[in-house]
Structure formats: structure tokens, C-alpha cells
Amino acid sequence: MVNKERLWDQLMELGKIGENTDKKKGLTRLVFTPEEDIAKKLIKEYMVDAGLTVMEDAAGNLIGKRIGKNPDLPVIMLGSHIDTVFRGGKFDGALGVLSAIEVARTLNERDVALDHTLEVVAFTDEEGARFSTGMLGSQAMTGNLDEDILERKDEQGITLKEALADAGYDPDKLTDAERAKGSIAAYLEVHIEQGKVLEKNGLSVGVVTGIAGPRWFRITLRGESGHAGSTPMILRKDPLAAAAEIITHIEDIARKQKNTVATVGQFSVEPGGINIIPEEVSFSLDLRDEDLENRNLAETAIKEKIAAITDKRELDLNLQLLHNLDPVKCDPVLVKLAIEASKKLELPTTKMVSGAGHDSLNLSGIAPIGMIFVRSQKGLSHRPDEWSTQEDCFDGARLLYQTVLNVDRELR
Ligand SMILES: [Zn+2]
Question: What is the dotted CATH code of the domain comprising 4-212+327-410?
Fold first, then answer.
């Protein structure tokens, strides 16, 4: 079986890279930064040590390969990511990549020859924290790149295009990373749950049946700035007051629907003086639902409210779609094979939906996908205190191992 201690030691080792000296502030490993580079070098070492042949594609995805007995078969791909959000934790993404490497290493140790070639992938920039993008590597691999992705800027004003070039990649060749539909027999990903369902049910692992797709907007409202003392209330066109009203409605609309979630996570005010009526505000919207129809309903309702409020207050509105992924279903055969694997291991599990997006969302465009969730303590994630126990991580990795064996046997 997979090695519990080894997996844990590697999680902790990787978790030191990008860690703030004040450990309460967690770790930050953003794409194309020295921290990410160090992490990739470590992952490369682990991959080589696990008997994988390592290469990097045009989008910087790190890929470890183990050739199967029948190299003509489409590959079985395992993966996740090693970038983090600002002040994130040790498990999001890292657990999936390290579990996959552990699976490969265990196959080698036990001299198991799979029919399929196995590929372990550490995807580039899943979180998209630096450029407000998301899933650059898996977008490139699946031919699904956001149109203006290269022009997105980080806080320093550096574009993704510039950052790619600085890191030694050719921004015009991102599409070289594309894989053909049908070239991947199955994509499997282990990930922490980032929610409380497993904890509530007393389970260490879950088998995911579908993923709620995120849709991101940037909403900019423009009014008229003026002196806070000498502009009477009735003469104001205050975009910040409008935004406050809009955000309350966004919350209400999402609350009224069963599974819809809507979040405003970024906000800026110009010019931002204590005695100046704001001229322009800009905020983000992240909208998700496992059901596309429900997500569309929420979006329409939100847009109607925004239009009504900006009209009433005579403001200019700019609503920009930044990123979209539709909700997807996991492959029923892979779900079944993962459930069978859990039974074989006598590991109690449940079927569940993922509220968070993952690289598997993109992969679903070209391959059958399956996901295994590992319990997150208190459901916490994207925080320094995100945690899964050693035992739970082990359960996730051994369920992945057994599922890979099942998939290799069943998919020809
Ligand atoms: Zn993740």
C-alpha cells in the first residue's frame, strides 16, 4: 500500500516552501515566483525518485510519466496543483499532486505494470491568485484559454504575458500544451474537500459526482466625485452607496436558491479620500452552482438588480465577464470504480458534489474525470489553518491507488 509517513513528510516539506516567517500567516506560492520555482524543483525530485520521467509542457505544467505495457492506450492522468492563494495552507492542491506521486512510487515498489501509461501532473496556476485568472495550466492543456488571459495584470502591473516570458515560456505557444480529446482515458484528482460535508458525516473520504462551475465578473460603477461637505445628498451620484445596495441584493438572491453561492471578494474605491464622494468603484463577483440552469437564474436576477440600481442612481456601469466554467458531472464509470475501490479497502465513503472548481473541470472537456475528496478539518481552506489529518490524507491516497488499479483493469 501507499506509504502514510512518506506522503505526510512530503506534504510537510512542500508546505515549508513559501511559508511566512510568522506561521500564522500561512504560505504563499504564486505562479512564476521564486517560491513556485523552488516547489516545482522539489516536485520534480519526488517524481524522479518515484520512477517517473519528468517533462514540462508549454504552459509550465510539470508532468511525470510512467510508460504502460500498452503505450498506444490513452493515458491515465492524475494531478492537481502546487500554487496557493495568498496566505493559504499546506493541503489544497499539494495533497493531490503528492498522492499521485505516491501512487506512482507504490506501483514501482510493488512492481505493478499497468497497461495504461500513467501521467502525474502538477498544473500551473490553478488558484489564479496572482493574475485573477485561474487554472492556466489545465486551460492550456484542454484548449480552453480565457480570451484575454495574457493581458491580465498582477498587483505590480506585470501582465501574465510578461511573467510567462520572464519565466522562460513563450506566451504565443501556450496552445502547444493542448491534448487531443480521447488521448486521456481517465483524469483522477485527490483534493481536500474545502467544506464540512465529510466531517459532518464522520467520513475521511468522499467520491465526487459533479463540480459546481465558477463564473467571475468585474463590475465597475462610475459616478461623480465631489466634496463630501458641500455636495447635498440629492445631488450625488455615489457609486459606493450603489455598490453596497447591489452587494446586499447579490447575497439575497443567492440565499433564495438552494445550492447557489455568490461572493464579492475584491473591492476598490477611487479616489478613496475620507472627504471625497467616490467617483468609481470596482468589485468582483464569483457565482457558482452545480446546476447550470440555477446559476443562470441567479445571474439574470443579479444583472437585473444591478441595472435597476445603476439606472436609478444615474451611474455608468461596466460589467465584464472574467472567467467562466460550466458545472460538470464526473464520469459515472469512474465514480463506480472509485466506490468499488473504497469497498475493497473497507473504507466508508459517500458520493458528494464539489462546490469548488478544480483543474478537473477543464479536463472534463477532453476526458472522463473523477475526484476523491479528503476531509478538511472544520471545512477550512484557503487559510493558513487549513488541515487534514495524516490518517485522512493516507485514506485519500490509498483510495486513489486502488481506483487507478480498477481503472487500468476496466478501461481498455
Ligand atoms: Zn485546489
Answer: 3.40.630.10
